[in-house]
Amino acid sequence: MLIAAAVCPCPPLLVPEVAGGAAHELDALRARCARAVGALAAARPDRLVVVGPAEESGRGPFPQGATGSLRGFGVDVRVTLGAPAADGPAGSAVPDRPLPPSLAVGAWLLERAAWAAAPVSGLGVGEPVAAGPCLTAGRDLTAGDERVALLVMGDGSACRSLAAPGYLDERAAAFDAAAARALGAADTAALAALDEELAREVKAAGRAPWHVLAGAGEGARLTGELLYDEAPYGVGYIVALWTAPA
After folding, report:
1. First to last CA, the chain
2. Residue 88: its pLDDT value, please?
3. CATH T-level topology, domain 2-243
4. Which of 68, 137, 138, 245 is the most exposed place for a label (fewest CB within 10 A)?
5. Across the beta sheet with 148-153, what order do the strands follow?
């Protein structure tokens, strides 16, 4: 069962070494992400799953101890998804393929928070995956009595300004607003209803992970809180927290 979820964006610029001299521009975003990850630890889950968008080679599950880096973004920052697994032959559970960038950023957030609350695994999902399979994947992640928390990585639209990576699309702000409302209210029905085609057209990389969250959260009756909703570089960055009612 899902007992908590944190939603964070996954731009490599979230890592100060990547952002360089502009790192301070995302200080507020980093602080909100840190608050969300801290709340996951406070929920005392039995297991944490990091979900994020991925290209074809990065899709599917990743075990605890999987590694990645941000070398592709010009810095030698290496990360590990949770502590290396203690059981089994050394390296036996770690795949040859590296973590996709979204999960690498998620692993960085966990390392920054000194995560030790629960075992960690990862799931990379791709934009071509339809809502139905994403919803099913979310349900499967949280089936049973195990207390599961999710760290859901994903950006909103990349078309919020003329300087945005996807240029300006007048529909992008409304799409992000709908996503922010659903995430901030822990409204799984509204989240599941996000338009796949529109998400693709406005380059919202978080659509598939958010649909996984919608499936995972069905029936959980969690309370949502919107912590951040801005588009500093023409890309929608949303931070939200889902927790059990007090």
Report:
1. 17
2. 43
3. Protocatechuate 4,5-dioxygenase; Chain B (3.40.830)
4. 245
5. 60-62, 120-125, 47-53, 148-153, 2-8, 237-243, 223-230
Query: Do 1 and 244 touch, CB atoms closer than 8 A?
Result: no
Collect all residues with Cβ–Cβ distance below 8 Å to 198 and sequence separation of at least 6.
Answer: 171, 175
Distances (CA, A) of 181 to 104, 137, 177, 187, 206: 27, 23, 6, 8, 15
Task: Write down how long the chain is.
Answer: 246
Q: Using CA atoms of 58, 63, 65, 67 in order, give the dihedral in degrees to the nearest 10.
A: 0
pLDDT at 22: 87
Task: Kindly list the domain boundaries of the chain, sorted by start residue.
Answer: 2-243
DSSP for 79-117 reads EESSSPP-SSSTTTTS-SSPPPHHHHHHHHHHHHTT--S
- CB count within 10 Å of CB 233 equals 18
C-alpha distances in angstroms, 205 versus 21, 45, 163? 26, 27, 18
pLDDT at residue 129, as a whole number = 80
Locate 198 and state its tokens: 């529109």
